[in-house]
Backbone:
């Protein structure tokens, strides 16, 4: 969701954690703590009796774990629940100030730095737009940006920053021509280890994930995906990309490049195969707008306010929605022939109204495709919005350090 605390939870989603049963063996303390925190995060709050029932841990083990998590400042007591026989039940919830996380999105046209708390509430956000990403400029933005964001935290809160997650396209140097960037600048990315460079600026661990995969992780951890366990996810930014969720977990594959949906072959304008990235990306829309003499800079600087009369009679916009919708429809149908997805989720660096219009275009295009023998997933709007990649970056240390991992950094 675009506003308010970025959390989700339902009995169905929480029940999916039950295959991660706890163990009463003392050597599994860390795993049991993660399981308790994950269940509390999914439900919002839980009493120890409920956790014991869900995890099959002994009541004594759960009491010890929750007491220690409370002492560590990760859990806080809620108002007692009365009205039942015996002592009132005391639910425990995540402490918003229990931990903080920083997320960095490095995109082809802009960078974002976000600070979130343990509940996923956005505590601060900074954005830097550019024609193309240069490593030195990114490092300066991160260095100064972290100082600004951390200035809003109290001393005790600042010490609870648990990590920084970077969401960026892998092999960024390969996109020099498409991004219109100087080859010599983009080649700098080939020789830099950006995770190590940023780690040198931080006293907490730094993680790295593909940007579109990270956005998928944000939808999984913070979004309103309900009881979805298997879905394919598309994020439409400067270039189209995506991710795959299987059995309630982000699947990134052995190299971290699974779900590289931007490279998926789809029919082009002339009927010949092309890649999804060459049709459904905002960079394609920008070129069309520039060709008509329209200033397209707000596509990058103001993603919630697109230029001109795009929502009514903008010919370049209408053509892009039609082409992008058709390409995404073919990508979804092709994916469905491999995995029986429950849903296809579409989000992007665009206004909510534009996202809705794109989803409608996809649904209409699917209706015109021969899908005999396939179960086509529901096509849904994403619920995290324009900041999904940065929030996905912030979810990396959250999942890695505290939860039964729904997401996992491809490189750390």
Residues:
């Amino acid at each position: 969701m675009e506003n308010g605390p970025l959390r989700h939870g339902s009995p169905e989603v929480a029940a999916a954690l039950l295959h991660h049963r706890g163990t009463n063996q003392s050597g599994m303390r860390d795993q049991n703590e993660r399981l308790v925190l994950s269940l509390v995060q999914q439900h919002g709050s839980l009493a120890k009796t409920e956790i014991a029932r869900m995890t099959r841990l002994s009541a004594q083990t759960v009491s010890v774990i929750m007491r220690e998590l409370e002492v560590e400042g990760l859990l806080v007591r809620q108002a007692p629940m009365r009205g039942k026989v015996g002592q009132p039940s005391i639910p425990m919830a995540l402490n918003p100030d229990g931990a903080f996380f920083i997320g960095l999105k490095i995109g082809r046209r802009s960078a974002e730095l976000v600070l979130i708390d343990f509940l996923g509430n956005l505590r601060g956000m900074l954005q830097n737009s550019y024609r193309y990403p240069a490593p030195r400029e990114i490092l300066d933005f991160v260095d100064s940006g972290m100082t600004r964001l951390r200035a809003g935290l109290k001393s005790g809160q600042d010490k609870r920053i648990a990590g920084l997650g970077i969401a960026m396209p892998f092999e960024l140097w390969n996109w020099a021509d498409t991004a219109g960037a100087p080859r010599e600048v983009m080649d700098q990315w080939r020789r830099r280890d950006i995770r190590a460079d940023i780690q040198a600026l931080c006293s907490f661990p730094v993680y790295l994930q593909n940007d579109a995969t990270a956005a998928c992780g944000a939808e999984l951890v913070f979004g309103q995906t309900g009881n979805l366990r298997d879905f394919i996810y598309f994020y439409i930014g400067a270039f189209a990309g995506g991710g795959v969720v299987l059995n309630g977990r982000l699947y990134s594959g052995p190299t971290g490049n699974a779900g590289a949906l931007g490279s998926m072959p789809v029919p082009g304008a002339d009927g010949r195969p092309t890649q999804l990235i060459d049709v459904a990306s905002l960079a394609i829309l920008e070129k069309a707008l520039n060709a008509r003499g329209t200033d397209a800079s707000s596509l990058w600087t103001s993603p919630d306010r697109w230029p001109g009369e795009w929502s009514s009679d903008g010919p370049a916009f209408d053509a892009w929605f039609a082409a992008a919708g058709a390409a995404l429809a073919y990508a979804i149908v092709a994916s469905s022939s491999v995995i029986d997805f429950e849903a296809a989720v579409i989000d992007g660096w665009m206004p909510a109204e534009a996202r809705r219009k794109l989803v409608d275009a996809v649904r209409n295009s699917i209706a015109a495709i021969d899908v005999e023998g396939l179960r086509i997933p529901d096509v849904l709007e994403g619920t995290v919005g324009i900041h999904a990649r940065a929030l996905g970056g912030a979810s990396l240390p959250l999942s890695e350090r505290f939860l039964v991992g729904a997401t996992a950094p491809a490189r750390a």
Observations:
- The chain is about 40% helix and 20% strand.
- Residues 38 and 224 are 16 Å apart (CA to CA).
- The first strand starts at residue 75 and ends at 77.
